[in-house]
Amino acid sequence: YYVKDVERKGKLLRLIMMLTDTTSNSGEADKSTCIDPLPPMKYVYFHMGMTGRISTPDYVPSLESLSGNDTFPPPHTHLIIKVGKVKVAFSDPRRFGAVSIDSNGPLDSQWNTFATDALDPDSSLALDGLIGHRKGVKALLLDQRAIVSGVGNWIADELCYQARIHPDQAYLTNDEVKLLKFHLDNILKIGIDAKDNDFPKDWIFHRRWSKNSKTQMKDRDGNTVLFIQSGGRSSAIVPSLQKNQKRKRKKPESDNSNDDVKNTNTTAITKSIPKKEKALVKKRTRTSSGKQQNKNSKKEVPPLRIPTRRSKRLTK
Q1: What SS3 state is found at 180?
Q2: Cis link prior to 307 (omega < 30° from 0)?
Q3: Is the pLDDT at 80 greater than 90, yes or no?
């Protein structure tokens, strides 16, 4: 097999492996050995978990719990892949990660349920799902199956801070989602290019790790940083910049096109009627409305019958 492509959805990597020679395995199974032919394509999954990392002899990603140790293979290495002279090691100190070659295994089903990766070109369209949603923005971003995958706790905090949006804010507007799209793309690209957490100094990333510090944390501009629970996780926010606005779901606007047509038709008809006929129409509507009121009233009052002279003569 050879690696045809590498895909990613959040912390889940997938290597697409293609068989080098499909002609020798395209026939039926060998009856003498009872060995099934090799599938033309396989998937190899790597789940990074919380501390998973892929290292090479030239570069070992730093890890806070193993700071200063850049030997290869790094401690807690569980798998080494060799291709010619190239070596790649998969290590995971806390063992929340996983490796799978089975195409029908749990990681394969997990891949199918994950949302679009946050760096995928289609993620911009997927993020529109945040508009008008009743759930808080951070809870939606942390759910890898809801909107996009690949946004973890610190990225969600950084994103809300830079966009000046409270993590519990619901019913986001179109403009707010546009801001989130811009900052998310920027944060991910800078984060990937940066090594050893060498992020910009004005990021709240540098303050969010001091939750238990006795001194009051402030951002680079001197604003107070507080820690709250949002989306089930500890979250760093700046209350003076990130305010949770109480909003209600907007009702969908009714289609008044038919009413407009009716109004335009009636106005056009009334304009074409002469003044004398208009007066007659008004009289009729008044009398008809009066009759209607008498019908709808609770007690009907009988009309008064005043006998006239003519009627007396006829009776005589």
Answers
A1: helix
A2: no
A3: yes
